[in-house]
């Protein structure tokens, strides 16, 4: 299944199951699920941000970025600890930009 088909499938399910949520919440949910399944999860928006020059993932719960020349620690949990190896495998398969 290609990315477009997966995205459309997620979109259909979200719109069917989350009928009382706002469009903004639905769209955020779709992107979050798609990035988790096909991209690099919560890291993907960081990869897509041109103002971020470096992403350092030391542990599943220890993530730093360099943005506009400043080093910032994020309160962001990459994944659950038990899925750490799966994330590393996905990172190696997708390359440095999550493509």
Protein described:
The two termini are 16 Å apart. The protein has 4 helices and 3 strands; from the N terminus they run αααβββα. Helix 1 (3-17) packs antiparallel against helix 2 (23-38). A 3-stranded antiparallel β-sheet has the order 1-2-3, with no helix packed on it. It has helices at residues 3-17, 23-38, 44-48, 84-94; strands at 52-59, 62-67, 70-74. Strand 1 (52-59) and strand 2 form a beta hairpin. With 99 residues, the chain is an alpha+beta fold. Helices cover 47% and strands 19% of the residues.
Compile the SSE list and pairings.
Blueprint: H1 3-17, H2 23-38, H3 44-48, E1 52-59, E2 62-67, E3 70-74, H4 84-94
Helix pairs in contact: 1-2
> Could you give the order of the helices and strands?
HHHEEEH
The number of distinct helices, counting runs of at least 4 residues, comes to: 4
Structural class by sheet pairing and helices: alpha+beta
Arrangement of strands in the largest sheet: 1-2-3
Terminal CA distance reads 16 Å
Proportion of residues in extended strands: 15-25%
Task: Tell me the major beta sheet.
Answer: 3 strands, antiparallel
Please tell me how large the radius of gyration is.
Answer: 15 Å
Number of strands: 3
| Helicity, as a percent range | 40-55%
Number of domains: 2
Shape: globular
Can you tell me the residue ranges where pLDDT is under 50 for at least 5 consecutive residues? Answer: none
In quaternary terms, these chains amount to: single chain
Mean pLDDT: 85
């Amino acid at each position: 299944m290609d990315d477009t088909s997966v995205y459309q499938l997620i979109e259909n399910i979200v719109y069917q199951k989350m009928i009382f949520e706002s469009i903004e919440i639905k769209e955020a949910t779709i992107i979050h699920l798609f990035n988790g399944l096909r991209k690099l999860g919560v890291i993907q928006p960081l990869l897509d941000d041109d103002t971020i020059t470096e992403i350092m993932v030391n542990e599943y719960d220890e993530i730093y970025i360099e943005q506009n020349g400043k080093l910032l620690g994020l309160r962001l949990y990459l994944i659950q600890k038990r899925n750490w190896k799966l994330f590393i495998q996905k990172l190696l398969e997708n390359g440095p930009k999550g493509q």
